Amino acid sequence: MEKLRILFRPRTGIVLNVLCKQKTCRFRIAKSKMSSVSNPPQSLLKPMVIPQKLLMGPGPSNSSPRILSASALPMLGHLHPEFTKIMDEVKEGTRYLFQTRNNWTVCVSGTGHAAMEAAVCNLLEPGETTLSCVNGLWGERYADMARRNGAIAETINKPMGQVFNLQEIEEGLQKYRPVLLFLTHGESSGSTVQPLEGVGKLCHRYKCLLLVDSVAAAGGVPLYADDWEIDCIYTGSQKVLSAPPGASPISFSEKGKEKVLKRKTPVRSFYFDMNHLSNYWGCEENPRRYHHTGPIMSVYALREGFSRLVEDGLENSWATHKKCAEMLHEGVERMGLELFVQDKSVRLPCVTGVKVPAGVNWKEVADYAMNQYKVEISGGLGAQAGKIWRIGIMGYNATPDNVNRVLRALSEALKHVGFKSRL
Amino acid sequence: MEKLRILFRPRTGIVLNVLCKQKTCRFRIAKSKMSSVSNPPQSLLKPMVIPQKLLMGPGPSNSSPRILSASALPMLGHLHPEFTKIMDEVKEGTRYLFQTRNNWTVCVSGTGHAAMEAAVCNLLEPGETTLSCVNGLWGERYADMARRNGAIAETINKPMGQVFNLQEIEEGLQKYRPVLLFLTHGESSGSTVQPLEGVGKLCHRYKCLLLVDSVAAAGGVPLYADDWEIDCIYTGSQKVLSAPPGASPISFSEKGKEKVLKRKTPVRSFYFDMNHLSNYWGCEENPRRYHHTGPIMSVYALREGFSRLVEDGLENSWATHKKCAEMLHEGVERMGLELFVQDKSVRLPCVTGVKVPAGVNWKEVADYAMNQYKVEISGGLGAQAGKIWRIGIMGYNATPDNVNRVLRALSEALKHVGFKSRL
């Protein structure tokens, strides 16, 4: 070999041109035989920078220092006794939060949407009819999920900012004869709280089960899942519970459980299958078996979120949210702004919709609050995009201090964009 | 009113017996009108106690202090620019880990099983045939998930501890003509590493896509997703990446992406739908829209897991896992124990199967190691339950010190149960 020339062809591999006895021989080394590792991404060599913000949008809300430090506790195995004890405590917390004695009370290993999906794929079978009460984003999303699961999803509709009464629900039940009715307890897109008393009893008269999304409400407003005959209810961890998103409590009544146990078709999701999850979460006599690896640290943090709620007391938590929301409502009205929900009795304390006045760009105001105060104020969704702001008051963030801070930021931002109160 | 007697009936509510003009009138106050909150669970008023353990099972592995403290950083919104920057860095880390340039590179908001489910429900449509190569738990689980999704799941089978060769795979492709072939890269139940070179090309000759589960392998053994023509690959966060479980990287080739985009039926899961996830993870030109709330802190921690990998370098990581596994293999053989996998070339460095000698109870040994050393050694699964131990060496735990610690614990435990080496 007299001369060797190596050519690197990124797509095809290395080509060796060997000048050998005055003749060039070409050898190709297949790329898979000589794969070299690509350069490491430089961005990952720099530190993460996370600013401290006050999250007063519709969620996530801030976690308390105690909850945050729980996330940094040492890892445990997903079936270690110290961890299953924590799971049991999270179950107790969930039962307290929902005011239920349901045996099938677990967490789904994902964020709020995962719990919604778990409810849908456990409770519905292909071809069954479900009725979604749509007064904002969540009823629509539920209907979408139900259809993806092969169910027929009918809807009854109200504009955002309004709720359903028993008569409207009964008409829907009569018309569609669904096996499952979906209601959003705290409609974060329309900032309403749906009255739930009597709905469960009504549904049961029509041989229908009641599914309730309480992601943006549980812990912030009165809720009695057993008394109100709710068959399945779920929430998220990152709202009133003030834990990071990642594990979502869900609970099934005996009727709900029976519906799952009597399915003719398998649950379409293995990850969300309550037949397995109920065992992993220790709802059965049988010893826990490996189903999947739970989100260990998210469960630690959620446990501390429940601990906070229990120390405070559920009724105090409801009262605090009410008080802070009223402070906020008075404050924004004093600025000459109008609340989105007209009917005081159905205003969700956890998320407040505030109308954007004519001539004001909602985003300019929100950006100002973020840039100058590191306070998050969110915009509207769907039909209300650009027309309302949404201000969240949830869990650890539900204090008069924080309400004052968001009011100050909002008021200054409005001045900044030239809004003059009509008052 | 002369006399009033209140009876509390827990199930029906309050009954008022009013003795009025010598006549008792009975009033019932419906329970829902007077619901009182149940007592808060006392267990949640006590602090959490989490011991420090060395997790040398098949996962989760321990997180480094840096990764743990990232979990406790302040909360951000799921669409805040500081957070989407971190998401972008996680994507870069994922591409580096898998050695791919795939555009559709995201994380699923759940643990490893969630990523498997995302692969299944995006890539398969009802009625399509898939072929699962079963040599342990994961191939079986995949087939289960595929069937739940309406696909026809065929299998080719090998005993645990063995892998598939190209000829066996080709015979399966010829026989079943699947649209998707599933292989487990690191079979943690059988402690094998599946050779993947040539499989992608072979699949593509048969118009079949290749799906690879690399939960227990990625980062610990060589892997070149692009060169090996893998169409979809996923992993977990809690193995070699040493981050808490909760966010799971997944990546689709152009062919894989095309398969999803050309679906005739909607993806059955909203939560896992890549049509939405790819937008949320910034894989498109379009601005990111709200799809679901991501697991913020799990993504922080995963980002630091990738940072650790990038600082170390992928090739060093592979070499370290190999070196530590060899130390472990020599150590257990010196004790007179036998390794489960005969063929040295297919031993998975991340999880090692060790045969339980006749007359020894695996659990007694594992319990001793946990009680005396706080070292986790796991047992076998399925056909190998009770017959093997499984010892994990992954990521932050892959150090000679930890290997020595697990060997010491194992050796002492064996003495404790009266095992005498045959050597």
TrEMBL record, chains A, B:
**A Pfam family the protein falls into:** Aminotran_5
Q: Domain of life here? A: Eukaryota
PANTHER family attached to this UniProt entry: ALANINE--GLYOXYLATE AMINOTRANSFERASE, AMINOTRANSFERASE CLASS V
The catalysed reaction is: glyoxylate + L-alanine = glycine + pyruvate
SUPFAM superfamilies named in the record: PLP-dependent transferases
Q: Where are the transmembrane segments?
A: none
The name this protein carries in UniProt is Alanine--glyoxylate aminotransferase
Q: What is its EC number?
A: 2.6.1.44
Among the GO molecular function terms of this UniProt record, one is:
alanine-glyoxylate transaminase activity
In this UniProt entry, the residues modified to N6-(pyridoxal phosphate)lysine are: 239
Which cellular component, as a GO term, is one annotated location?
peroxisome
GO BP, one example? glycine biosynthetic process, by transamination of glyoxylate
Which intervals hold domain Aminotransferase class V?
Answer: 75-397
Q: What organism is the protein native to?
A: Mytilus galloprovincialis (Mediterranean mussel)
